[in-house]
């Protein structure tokens, strides 16, 4: 795509340190961000509302660059949320993903399982394992940068719909 955009002379090997620095800065900056206190409290309250016992989806929407990921990250890593959910996973979506990649990532974060075991499983088997593991558990799965409802629909059957106040 570099030639399409008129970018020349940037070797691909030089992108790795830039990406590493970006990710490091992204999470370092998240610690210093101010002004989200009210939003953090509202979302934390929604996540921890035990009166909503069915599995619920809570969306954070806004313009690109408005701080949605930073806000979600601060909530996800707060002690109140860590204490409330027995099982948590953070999934970075992308424009080009496969349902299997997402499910594998969820499985790695929620179950203690080896990569070679996951590779041998069919997609439906991965969904079933995740569902069985999460059954009866209050869990939180953050899907960062999801663009379409259909993306959610491809994997939502992996998450049990029980009365555990999961999100």
Walk me through what this model shows.
With 167 residues, this protein is mostly helical. Helices cover 50% and strands 7% of the residues. It contains nine helices and two strands; from the N terminus they run H-H-H-H-H-E-H-H-H-E-H. The chain has a two-stranded parallel ribbon with strand order 1-2.
Which SSEs are present, and which pair or pack?
Blueprint: H1 2-5, H2 15-32, H3 37-48, H4 68-76, H5 79-84, E1 87-92, H6 99-110, H7 115-119, H8 123-134, E2 139-144, H9 149-153
Parallel strand pairs: 1-2
SSE order, one letter for each helix or strand? HHHHHEHHHEH
Tell me roughly what share of residues is in helical segments.
40-55%
E-strand count: 2
Total of DSSP H or I helical runs spanning 4+ residues: 9
Average pLDDT confidence is 83
Strand order of the largest sheet: 1-2
User: What structural class should be given to the helix and strand makeup?
Assistant: mainly alpha
Beta-strand proportion: 5-15%
- Which regions contain 5 or more consecutive residues with pLDDT less than 50? 10-29
Shape: globular
- Rg from C-alpha positions? 18 Å
User: Biggest sheet, in brief?
Assistant: 2 strands, parallel
Gap between N and C termini: 38 Å
What would a concise description of this structure say?
The chain has 167 residues and is mainly alpha-helical.
Short key terms for the protein model shown above:
mainly alpha, 167 residues, two-stranded parallel sheet, globular
């Amino acid at each position: 795509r570099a030639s399409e955009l008129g970018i020349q002379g940037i070797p691909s090997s030089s992108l790795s340190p830039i990406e590493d620095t970006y990710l490091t800065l992204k999470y370092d900056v998240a610690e210093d961000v101010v002004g989200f206190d009210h939003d953090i409290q509202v979302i934390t309250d929604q996540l921890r509302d035990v009166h909503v016992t069915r599995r619920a989806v809570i969306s954070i929407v806004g313009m690109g660059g408005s701080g949605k990921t930073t806000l979600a990250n601060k909530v996800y890593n707060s002690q109140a949320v860590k204490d409330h959910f027995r099982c948590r996973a953070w999934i970075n979506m992308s424009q080009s993903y496969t349902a299997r990649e997402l499910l594998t990532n969820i499985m790695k974060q929620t179950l203690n399982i080896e990569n070679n075991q996951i590779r041998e499983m069919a997609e439906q088997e991965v969904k079933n394992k995740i569902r069985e593991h999460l059954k009866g558990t209050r869990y939180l799965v953050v899907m960062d940068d999801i663009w379409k409802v259909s993306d959610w629909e491809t994997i939502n059957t992996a998450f049990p719909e029980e009365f555990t106040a999961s999100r």
